[in-house]
Sequence to fold (252 residues):
Amino acid sequence: MKHLKSQRTAAVVLTAVVCLGLLTAGCVTKRDIDEVKDSLNSIRSQNAQTQRLVERMDSIITAGAQSNARLTTEIRTSVADLQQSIANLLQNYNDLIQRIDALTRVKPKVTVESSPGAQDTAPAQKSQTDCMALYDDAFILVRGSKYDQAISSFKSFLEACPQNENAANAHYWIGDCLYTQEKYTAAVDEFDLVLKNYTETTVVVKALYKLARAKQELGKKDEARKYYKKIVAEHKGTLEARQAEERLKELK
Fold:
């Protein structure tokens, strides 16, 4: 229990230190700082949720008057909830670090004048700065639980910046929003798209796990079991692999 609290606290403290170091370096604008603050507030919210779950586990374990069977069920449920909260916290942390890193690497927009009489043969992709702004706006909507707006914003980002390095993440977040809204079939399609088109990105294992969860919610237990086993076999040591092992126990 103490280990889980320490791990959670360390993740939040580390996030704050990294953010402070980057933001005080003068590499980002006030708008960027405000948006990072929004994400930090979301992490604090996740942190508070995790704290409540830890306290719930403490109270369950202390209540020795309950029967062993009921106690075991309660603890297993609390642990699963706690693992999901920690997973969300880590996802927030990783996304925030990626965003800050991208913001520090953004180059000024350069305007190139065309030759007299020249015409564009194809629509140009927006600049890196514009793409990051679009992605950040959509990301903040997710953290504000404005899922329909977030989906629309991520789709706008993908239309304007199809080759951007955050394209895979955008598809993942669209799927995650759909999953949260219990639109599991649509979520499956989005996660499938990530797995088919972005095989070299770090978001693959997250998409694979959420795909398995969506399949499970749809009652397709055999398919869900197949994906969980794939995660355990091919992504050992990840949080998703540990979660998949727990889900496999449920499906026996």
In short: DSSP finds ten helices and no strands in the chain.
